[in-house]
Amino acid sequence: MTALADMSGAIMPNRRGWLGALSDHFWRRPGLLIFLMLLPAILWLGIVYLGSLLALLIQSFFSIDEFSGLINHEFTLKTYAELLKPQNLDIIVRTVMMSALVTIASAIIAFPIAYMAARYARGKWKALFYLSIMLPLWASYLVKIYAWKLILAKEGILNWLFEQLHLTWLLEAWLAIPVIGGNSLSISYTGTFLVFLYVWMPFMILPIQAAIERVPTNLLDASADLGATPRQTFWKVIFPLTLPGVIAGSIFTFSLTLGDYIIPQIVGNSQFFIGQAVYSHQGTAGNIPLAAAFTVVPIVIMGIYLWLAKRAGAFNAL
Amino acid sequence: MKRIIRSTAALLMSGLSCGSVLAQDMLQSLGAGEGEVSIVAWAGYIERGETDKNFDWVTKFEADTGCKVSVKTAATSDEMVALMNEGGFDLVTASGDASLRLIAGKRVQPINTALIPSWSTIDPRLESAPWHTVDGVHYGTPYVWGANVLMYNTEVFKDAPPTSWNVVFEETTLPDGKSNKGRVQAYDGPIYVADAALYLMTHKPELGITDPYALNEDQYKAALDLLRVQRTLVGRYWHDAFIQMDDFKNEGVVASSSWPFMVNVLKAEGAPVASTFPAEGTTGWADTTMLHVDSPHPNCAYMWMEHSLSPKVQGDVSAWFGTVPSVPAACKGNELLGDTGCATNGADDFEKIRFWRTPTTKCATGECVPYYRWVSDYVGVIGGR
Question: The complex's ipTM?
Fold first, then answer.
């Protein structure tokens, strides 16, 4: 390598000026250039991302002293045992259930929309489709949630609509169901679920649409030619080929629901989700270990989820 | 050798104590302003007319003193303590839980009341309040204070405003003939456990609660049990002032603990609400303007403290935030606050208010339940456990 570098120096005179010298230097050592270009990214990933994650992980192995409220900087699994207390387990189960339901529901609703956008919309209509899917993402997240709170309120537009349709009894029957019911839609899990569903929907539609667009039409024609009914074509051809897209979308909806702490605070019956628990245990409470342990939960769940998704080939559809 | 060590230690000790005496030393005379002053404050506490041009108590101060005011807003007491520990600021508007921590951590310095002419105008009830005065030394000037009042719907309660917190703690029939179930709210912060304890002070005297922020295991358990009953009545806990206002307007909520701020805003919008101080008393907060121990601009800081006590500023802040001025003169003749503003915000109920403090393990009665347990248990209560 050095010999080669010397040779090139011998064949051509070194370029003048520091820029030229720098350029020569990089030409002789291509590895250095790549290293310098990667350095910011490595630093970002290493220090900001993995570093903070590691700091968090370490915190979760400390514990809080029962009497003084001070942090005990010794390795212990006590904080994780704390997670298994019924009230904390409730929070985890609640959050995971909500994430799973939101994911399943958004996949069911997103699929036909994505299918329409990918297969039938053309030209102007296609642009309109994209626009209407993306539009909610442009408005402020908080504004949307506040708007939904008003829509779902006891004296909100949805209640009014039910009243006009003489269907108030239906709504009341629904709200009388334990767990998912409540005083009004905005004070129930149903409301929280609807808002989650709305807010994360674009993240499900777009990957599915990308996946559907990649299914070659001749496969569908072949399926029809060979006598398959539309239903069979869907389940045997389209669905398996677009499944990675659905899984890719579900990664977004699942993880976003898992981590959100603003929606359940504004719409719902105040029962905590993981994000809110983290928020309240740090701060004045000073129970950083428990907050950290709570944060590890979605990381672990997402780790398992991503591993399964990778096996299903979802990353090719992103 | 031993003697050398001993004498060095003695020297060191004397040096240290000398240092602490110096640190205790306060400014003796005011010099010229340094041209700027930086303040850590709650959002809305230092307004320069940018939100509403009627609410401006900075511009004139800057013109008069030449001290440019820069404000760093903080959302929680913890943020305030963290910022003050970091340093570089002159003043902080600290609440009762932060102020004592700052004094204990020696992040703030005692103030020389002789340099603040308006000190004599301060409400005598606040002059030596325990959240800014330790061992007779004053560590700041009172800013404003307020109470967590009981807000109620005047159409439901008509001429008989609720006189007790029981409307939010126990299932009862309200004057409109319907149950209070699903129509009341409570604050979702763990400090609300103190409100339950305050209620029990009157209704279960056998528990022997003397201070709602210092509860032993039995008293604490009783408070949690009361809160569990409350959970069955509350549809949603409130956290954000604007969401609570919306719930009063659109969700059929008719009674809740609240701040005068929400009451004032809702009244201004024409909503049928009013507030009251129930017989059990209320919890509340009181803020103090404190001076950083290494304040880079002490002269301007003193000028601001003096300015912050002027009736105009006190009245304007109180009108803006729904608080009570620390200077009684501010209650009269302030255009924004009005002559009844102080009474509405709770000026006459000072004795009934238990000001906010962080519960700690060490307390007057021996051992108490610390705040972090309030947090984890209150999470459980809200979760239905």
Answer: 0.72
